[in-house]
Amino acid sequence: MIRAITRLAVTRAHREMHLCVRYEKQQKVCGMLHQLVQSRQFTTTGRMGYSVSPTNINDDVQQPKEGLLKRFIKKMGWIDNSSVRLRVSSCLLYESVVDHINYAEFFECFNMPDTFNTWFLITELHVWMLLVRAMAEGAEKGAAGRFMRNCIVETMWNDVTTRAKQLTLDNPSVVRPQIQQLSEQFQAALISYDEGISFDDKQLAAALWRRFLGGRCEDYEKLELLVGYVRKQISMLDHLSRYDFAIKPTVKWASLAEPT
Fold first, then answer.
1. How far apart are CA 130 and CA 125, in angstroms?
2. pTM of the entire structure?
3. Which pLDDT tens digit goes with each residue over 184-217?
4. Which residues does 233 contact at the CB level (< 8 Å), separation at least 6?
5. Nearest in space to 240 (alpha carbons), one of 80, 88, 127, 132
6. How far apart are CA 140 and CA 50, in angstroms?
7. Cβ contacts of residue 158 below 8 Å, gap of 6+?
8. How many whole angstroms separate alpha carbon 255 and alpha carbon 101?
9. How far apart are CA 162 and CA 109, in angstroms?
10. SS3 letters across 195-218
């Protein structure tokens, strides 16, 4: 009986000691957690973290909401960069040349005959200026500018081929070699014009005199007029925004007689 009572008392003592030790451990752990929480700060998002810098605070400031239309355009911006949109714009740019350039003005001013070859020389010059502006939208492979350049050239050759076939209905076999010859001349003209526009007016005048005027112009005032015309048109194209050139083209070619 006494032994049973003694054993029960010992058991209770061990249990109470175990509870006291467990309680002390819990208090110690709670104290450590409290110190850890005090050493940190809560961010503005409510998550626990270290004190934030002013830069991070500014990042959390809500910016004014954009309009619905602007957000939609930004979200669907890929539409403006699609190949379909750029191809359509390229066709419109080429049409701005053949539909709005006053060819008769060039025929009269530079004493040029009204022939298919002369028409091509005038068109070629303005297409080259479009290509210069297009490459400003990106010259690397896969860029919008390079894609537009190829589309403009493709549109030009389709038009040139169609016009050549209409003029040679009696002898269609001459169209292919004629287009091949014009293609070689076009490539050479692009190189010459590019070199001319990259340097001073003397280089540009030499390129225009050789290609556009065929090396037969003796009136240097007219040559100076042509150089000023090209510089004026290049400047006009350079000032066009991407939207006004590549998305919805609004090219307004100046008249040859307009002062520079």
1. 9
2. 0.69
3. 999 999 999 999 999 889 999 999 999 999 988 8
4. 126, 129, 253, 254
5. 132
6. 45
7. none
8. 8
9. 28
10. HHHHCCHHHHHHHHHHHCCCCCCC
Indicate the angle between helix axes 220-238 and 201-211, nearest 10 degrees: 110
- Per DSSP, the residues of the chain read -HHHHHHHHHHHHHHHHHHHHHHHHHHHHHHHHHHHHHTSEE-TTS-EESPPPHHHHHHHSPPPPPPHHHHHHHHTGGGTTSHHHHHHHHHHHHHHHHHHS-HHHHHHHTT---SHHHHHHHHHHHHHHHHHHHHTT--STT-HHHHHHHHHHHHHHHHHHHHHHHHTSS-GGGHHHHHHHHHHHHHHHHHHHHHHHHS-HHHHHHHHHHHTSTT----HHHHHHHHHHHHHHHHHHHTS-HIIIIIS----PPPTTS--
How far is residue 103 from each of residues 86, 119, 126, 128, measured CA to CA in Å?
A: 27, 7, 11, 16
Per-residue pLDDT tens digits for 149-166? 999 999 999 999 999 998
Residues with Cβ within 8 Å of 147's Cβ and at least 6 positions away in sequence, in order, are 83, 86
φ, ψ dihedrals at 52, nearest 5°: -90, 155
Cα–chain center distance at 224? 34
Read off the tokens for 141.
């492979």
